[in-house]
Amino acid sequence: MKFPAFAYARPNTIDEAIALLASEDEARPLAGGQTLLPILALRMSMPSLLVDLNDIEDMKHIIVGDGVVRVGAMVTHAQNLASTEHRKYLPLLSEAVRHVAHEAIRNRGTIGGSLAHADAAAEMPLVVTALDATMIIANEDGGRRVEAKNFFGGHFTTAIESGELLTTIEFPISDHHWAFEEVARRPGDYALVMAAAGLKVNNGIVESARITLGSVADRPLRAPEAESYLTGKAISGEIAVEAAQIATQDLKSHDDIHASANYRRTVVGTLVKRALMRAATEKSA
Amino acid sequence: MKKVADDELVQVHTSVNGRSYTFSTEPRVNLADALRYELGLLGTKVGCEHGVCGACTILVDGKSARSCLMLGLQAEGREISTIEGWANGKELNPLQESFRRHHALQCGFCTSGFLATATELLRENPNPTREEVRERISGNLCRCTGYETIVDAICDPEVAAFARDEKNA
Predict the structure, then answer these.
(1) Which of A176, A214, B69, B76 is 20 to 30 A distant from A256 in Cα terms?
(2) How many domains are there within chain B?
(3) In a domain, B14, yes or no
(4) How far away is chain B from the Cα of A246, in angstroms, using its nearest Cα?
(5) A3 and chain B: CB distance < 8 Å anywhere?
(6) What pLDDT shows up at residue A283?
(7) Among B11, B25, B28, B37, the residue to mutate for chain A (most A Cβ within 10 A)
(8) What gap in Å lies between CA B132 and CA B125, rounded to an integer?
(9) What residues of chain A lie within 8 A of the CB of B120, using their CB?
(10) Hey, what's the torsion of the CAs at A26, B29, A59, B78, to 10 degrees?
(11) Which structural domain, as residue segments, surrounds residue B26?
(12) pLDDT (tens digit per residue) in A140-159
């Protein structure tokens, strides 16, 4: 269908955007539009005002320093894919963003838009959860910081309040080795299931492990019991299988037309194992 | 740009296929419809209207984009390239000619979108493998199911030679 009618503004600064978003109850920010515009076409949302963020240069930077990488919310998936900084400092983001949609969508779709939409089958929510990123949110009172683990509230629900704007995602630079695995029906489709593993290994022994599962619940899930299980062990195929078992044993996933809950639990376990084995053999960046 | 009301007409200045255009549009009109109904450029097709099918794919500042997932007024100051700009009069460009030679279209509705996607790919990589082509065109749907011939057309050696020359030019 055609979009419903809406008023429109294209501010140049974050402050102007915040003022516009606060000016109407049904105002919504428009980032890349690769999810919001389909939602409008399907008439699932009818905002009164779209505040287009595409002219706000302050939201388009990738800045490395002080042990973190700050990625502006309006950085596109294509820019994240091409970023040499990310390949060096955020290899998990570089690897996962390849799975986001198709080139034409990646050229316009943004990391901030994907996070604010919070689709549990999308890659960026999993990446920020795996990397313990912090969301920097602007509002009329100046702003606040929300850790990834507190950011997602369920399907299509985040900590961003009405009148607020996600402006930057701050990633701590991790000293883990990372691997990402995904199963989708076609390249670029939303994930049926996905998993990320991060390992810090010293003399063959795991000092720290991070396991994150995606598209198996209403938000990305860390697997803390499997992470503790791995700590102090040497990675082998058997240990990885056991960690995958621990990570998935209590998983209550969902059935849909593409996959049963049982299929999702089984396949995501396999992906955890594969990601762990790859992370264990990844060379340092 | 200041706030405009939902029924307000906005003047947009843009370049399509090297020619300057000015048109007026309400905020809700997508770029595909603006191209078709304001500028009369009917070669860009509108399939699903929500970004899935890829039929409306065009190039904006050299990058592929779904014209159904942009607003007409986001064309302000952009350089847009559409199917109408790719042949030289009646002479098809080598990629179009390869599509014709390999029978890479039946009804033709998806073709301008496939050509936009393939043009961007070939500019980055004049010699893609069949696997790379298949992955790149996975965002374009052909319901005549002609994918094999479309991959053949994009991987044709004459297309590769043309793409190399373009890249080196």
Answers:
(1) B69
(2) 2
(3) yes
(4) 34
(5) yes
(6) 59
(7) B28
(8) 10
(9) 103
(10) -160
(11) 10-85
(12) 999 999 999 999 999 999 99
